[in-house]
Amino acid sequence: MRPFVFINAAMSLDGKISNDRREQVRISSPEDFRVVDRLRAESDAVMVGIGTVLSDDPKLTVKSEELRRERVERGLPENPIRVVVDSRARTPLNSQVLNQAARTIVAVAEVADEEKVELLRRRAEVFVAGKERVDLRALLEHLYSIGVRRLMVEGGSEINYSLIREGLVDEIRVFYSGMVIAGRRAPTLVSGESFDTPVEARLKSVEPLGNGVAVVWEMRTANLRKV
Ligand SMILES: NC(=O)C1=CN([C@@H]2O[C@H](COP(=O)(O)OP(=O)(O)OC[C@H]3O[C@@H](n4cnc5c(N)ncnc54)[C@H](O)[C@@H]3O)[C@@H](O)[C@H]2O)C=CC1
Ligand SMILES: Nc1nc(O)c(N)c(N[C@@H]2O[C@H](COP(=O)(O)O)[C@@H](O)[C@H]2O)n1
């Protein structure tokens, strides 16, 4: 079994989630950031790819004190578990995801350097799955086995691609922001190679929000929850 998996992302009106230097761009409106914070608070775990850690050095914590308090009142830790998909154990040891604010799992593949893995083990839990690349199905099964029922994926474009390709995404929530980023090499929501047949999604909701619009899509693979 695996958790309910949803991707959340903010995209410019020209379809970019970052610029061509892959820098962290503030695309969400303040209104959207508040929704994103609530979505984190309602999730058991938040997952990103190593590309996002290297570009953004995110904290992946709940920002609102009130939401953190509500989690504690429900018997949960203040922050959801942080999960980094990092085949070669490239997570820098001074990354903010390795701080003490939340439980962190770094998922690596068998190719990862053993010494670096040992250093990561001193700061986080390490889960090994897959030879060259992290086996995402195995990772999701592991997360389910430790109690994760709702997993929020916060990018980036490569991890989004792999999850969709494997049919492991139930919903995608995108905030389309009133801005143009441009850039031939700027990442879009999903990278990788084009699918032979496009993966279809069903429109679930549309909501104007600040300077943009939030859209929730239900993926056609949503009924394939068992792995
Ligand atoms: N606007 C938004 O909502 C968001 C934007 N971003 C942006 O996205 C960019 C980072 O995205 P990417 O470079 O695509 O990196 P990514 O965060 O998707 O990480 C990809 C890396 O994960 C590793 N990996 C391990 N196993 C894998 C597997 N099975 N499938 C795929 N990858 C696997 C690989 O090393 C791969 O290079 C940054 O510019 C960041 O700012 C990231 C998150 C949200
Ligand atoms: N929802 C959303 N809107 C944006 O404009 C963004 N740039 C992102 N980026 C994601 O949020 C992470 C940062 O988290 P912290 O504030 O450090 O907790 C970043 O790494 C992306 O995953 N998201």
UniProtKB/TrEMBL annotation:
Span of domain Bacterial bifunctional deaminase-reductase C-terminal: 3-214
Pathway: Cofactor biosynthesis; riboflavin biosynthesis
Record-linked InterPro entries: DHFR-like_dom_sf, Rib_reduct_arc, RibD_C, RibDG_C, Riboflavin_Biosynth_HTPR
An annotated Gene Ontology molecular function: 5-amino-6-(5-phosphoribosylamino)uracil reductase activity
Family per similarity comment: Belongs to the HTP reductase family.
The protein's assembly and partners: Homodimer.
Protein name: 2,5-diamino-6-(ribosylamino)-4(3H)-pyrimidinone 5'-phosphate reductase
Source organism (scientific name): Geoglobus ahangari
Upper taxonomic lineage: Archaea, Methanobacteriati, Methanobacteriota, Archaeoglobi, Archaeoglobales
